[in-house]
Write a structure and sequence with these properties.
Strand order of the largest sheet: 2-1-3-4-5-6-7
Shape: globular
Number of strands: 15
Radius of gyration: 22 Å
CATH class of the largest domain: Alpha Beta
Strand content: 15-25%
Structural class: alpha/beta
CATH superfamily of the largest domain: tm_1862 like domain
Distance between the termini: 51 Å
Oligomer: single chain
CATH architecture of the largest domain: Alpha-Beta Horseshoe
Length: about 500
C-alpha cells in the first residue's frame, strides 16, 4: 500500500552541537511532526514518521529510508528543541533533501516550520530541493494537499491555501494564507501525539541537568504541549511566526502572538499515555506553562490525583511565578522551572520588549522556589542591543551571586521571524551565512552583534561566562549537596569539552 505522507525529523546534531551531540545534548521527540501525523491520520490518510536524529541516521541512511517508504509526499518538519531554534535544524533538513533530490528528483518535498514561515519566499528562491512550503503551522494545509492526486499540477496547487511553490519557469508563487487551528478545534484537529509512530522512547534522552533529580537517568524521555503560542512579544523570540495569517515580508512573531490551549482533561490523557510507556522524564514544551492558573493548576490537580512519579520540566516567567502556585506544581511532579530572566537590569529588559512585565525581585522568586523545593533553570542572554561589556559582566555577576541549579547563557541571536531579525536587517548587522550558524554551539555560529560589541566579543564573553559559572566551587558544591557526586562529575566532564568557534579564531 502506498504511503500518503512521511513526516521527517532531520538530523544534523554533529554540526549543531559539535561534540556535545554524542552524549550531552538532549534528543527530544519530534512532537510537532507527531501532532501533524495524528491530524492526517484522523483524516483517513496513511502516515509514518522518520526520526533521523533519534535513529542517528546520516544523510545517506536518511535518504534510503525515505526512498524505502514510497511516500506520495515527504514532509520535513523543521522545529527546534527550543522553538526559536527552527533555523538551525534547516541544516539537516536541507542537507537531506538535497541528496534526496540528487538520487530521486521525482520525490515531492514539503517543508513546514518556523524558519519556513518566517522566510517563505527566500526559502523557495534559494533551495531548489524544496518543492512546496507551508506558510504557517500548516495543519489544514497538509491535509488539503493530500487530497490531490499529484503535486506538480500548478493549476491545482494554486487552489491550496497556505502554500508556496515554484512554477515550471521557476517563478515563486505564494498563495493566500490558511487559518491556524482555533482553540475551539484543537482537540478535534490536533488530537494529541502519535506516540505509536515514534521510535522506542528509550532513544530519547533529556538534558543532563534535568535527570539529576531522577538518579541521572536521562532516558526514556518524552515531551508534550499543553498550549501553543505565547501572548507576549519579546524581541528576541520568533515562536509565534508559525501563527501568521499574513504573507507580508515585514511580519514578525510580534504580529501573531496568539495563545491557545487544550482542556486539562484532554492533556491528562497524554500524560496517562506517557506513564503507560514507562517514561518518567517529561518536558512540558509550552513557551509558558505557568501563565493561566485556570489551565495549569487543573492539570496539576489531575496529575496529583494519579500520583505519577514524574520528573517534569516546564517554563515560567519571573513575574508569573507566584508563591501560591509553587507547592501545587511541586506536588504534581514539576521539579524544574525554566525562568526567562534574560537580563537582571530593568532598563535592558524593557528594551527587549518584555511587554507588561511586572517588576519583581528576582532574588525573592528564587527564594520562593527553593522553599518549595523546585529547581531553578535560569536563562540569561548576552549581547542584546543595548548590552556593553559592563552590562554583560553585571549579568554574569548577578548569576554568580544568585546561584541556580542550572543556568543557560545564551548569545542574542537574530532568529528569522523575530523582531530582532528585522532590526538586524535594518541595521545591516552581520547575520549567519549558514543554517547551523544560528546555533550558538556550532563551529560557524554568528550571534547578533550590536552597536557596542562585535559578534566575536559577545561569543567569547558568553563562553568564558559559561566556564566560570560551571567551574565555580560554590556552584559545584551546591550541585553535589543537593543531588549527588555523579551530578557534579557530569558538570566537570562537560567543562572539559571545548567547542570550536570560527569567529573567534579556532
Amino acid at each position: 500500500m502506498l504511503l500518503d505522507i512521511l513526516f521527517v525529523h532531520p538530523n544534523a546534531s554533529d554540526k549543531i552541537y559539535q561534540s556535545l551531540s554524542k552524549d550531552h545534548s538532549a534528543i527530544e521527540p519530534p512532537i510537532w511532526a507527531a501532532m501533524l501525523a495524528n491530524h492526517c491520520r484522523s483524516r483517513g490518510y496513511s502516515v509514518s514518521i522518520l526520526d533521523c536524529e533519534a535513529e542517528r541516521l546520516d544523510y545517506d541512511s536518511s535518504v534510503k529510508a525515505i526512498e524505502d517508504s514510497k511516500a506520495r509526499l515527504v514532509c520535513f518538519v523543521v522545529y527546534g528543541q527550543q522553538p526559536s531554534a527552527s533555523t538551525q535544524n534547516m541544516e539537516g533538513a536541507v542537507g537531506t533533501a538535497r541528496l534526496l533530490k540528487e538520487i530521486n528528483p521525482n520525490i515531492i518535498t514539503l517543508f513546514v516550520g518556523g524558519h519556513i514561515a518566517a522566510l517563505a519566499r527566500e526559502t523557495l528562491k534559494t533551495e531548489s530541493s524544496i518543492d512546496i512550503i507551508g506558510l504557517n503551522e500548516s495543519v489544514y494545509t497538509i491535509s488539503n494537499l493530500l487530497q490531490l492526486k499529484n503535486f506538480d499540477d500548478e493549476i491545482t496547487l494554486r487552489k491550496i491555501n497556505g502554500i508556496g511553490f515554484r512554477t515550471s519557469d521557476n517563478c515563486v508563487v505564494i498563495n493566500s494564507p490558511e487559518r491556524i487551528v482555533p482553540k475551539s478545534l484543537l482537540e478535534k484537529d490536533l488530537p494529541g501525539i502519535a506516540w505509536d509512530l515514534l521510535p522506542d522512547m528509550s532513544k530519547y534522552r533529556t538534558a543532563g541537568w534535568h535527570s539529576w533529580s531522577n538518579d541521572s537517568s536521562k532516558a526514556p524521555f518524552a515531551a508534550l504541549y499543553t498550549s501553543l503560542g505565547c501572548p507576549y512579544t519579546c524581541s528576541f523570540c520568533m515562536i509565534n511566526i508559525i501563527n501568521r495569517t499574513d504573507n507580508s515580508p515585514e511580519i514578525s512573531s510580534r504580529d501573531s502572538n496568539i495563545f491557545r490551549w487544550w482542556r486539562p482533561e484532554f492533556i491528562i490523557e497524554q500524560f496517562d499515555k506517557i506513564a503507560s510507556m514507562g517514561v518518567k522524564n517529561i518536558k512540558i514544551a509550552d513557551e509558558l506553562f505557568v501563565l493561566n492558573p485556570n489551565h495549569f493548576i487543573k492539570i496539576c490537580d489531575l496529575l496529583i490525583e494519579r500520583k505519577y512519579d514524574f520528573n517534569i520540566w516546564a517554563y515560567s516567567r519571573i513575574d508569573t511565578c507566584k508563591p501560591e502556585y509553587l507547592d501545587k506544581l511541586k506536588e504534581a511532579g514539576i521539579n524544574w522551572l525554566g525562568l526567562g530572566i534574560e537580563n537582571p537590569s530593568t532598563v535592558l529588559r524593557k528594551k527587549i520588549h518584555k511587554d507588561s512585565y511586572r517588576e519583581v525581585k528576582i532574588n525573592d522568586v528564587f527564594d520562593m522556589m527553593r522553599n518549595a523545593d523546585i529547581n531553578i533553570a535560569a536563562n540569561y542572554i548576552f549581547g542584546l542591543p543595548m548590552d556593553t561589556h559592563e552590562s554583560m559582566q553585571n549579568t554574569l555577576n548577578f548569576a554568580q551571586n544568585n546561584l541556580s541549579e542550572m543556568v543557560n547563557f545564551y548569545c542574542a541571536m537574530a532568529y528569522p521571524g523575530s523582531p530582532l531579525y528585522l532590526e538586524a536587517k535594518k541595521q545591516k548587522w552581520l547575520l549567519p551565512k549558514s543554517y547551523s550558524g544560528y546555533s550558538q554551539h556550532s563551529y560557524d555560529t554568528t550571534n547578533l552583534q550590536n552597536n557596542n560589541l562585535s559578534s566575536s566579543e559577545i561569543l567569547a564573553f558568553r563562553d568564558k561566562a559559561w566556564m566560570e559559572y560551571h567551574t565555580n566551587k560554590d556552584y559545584l558544591s551546591l550541585i553535589e549537596n543537593k543531588f549527588d557526586l555523579n551530578a557534579r562529575r557530569n558538570i566537570e566532564q562537560t567543562t572539559k569539552i571545548k567547542l570550536k568557534r570560527k569567529i573567534i579564531g579556532d
